[in-house]
Amino acid sequence: RLAAEAQHRLQLTITSASQPPDIQAPEEVSDHLYRIAHEALTNAARHGGCRSVALEIFADEANYVLTVADDGRARAGVGTGGARALA
Question: pTM (2 decimals)?
Answer without folding.
Answer: 0.77
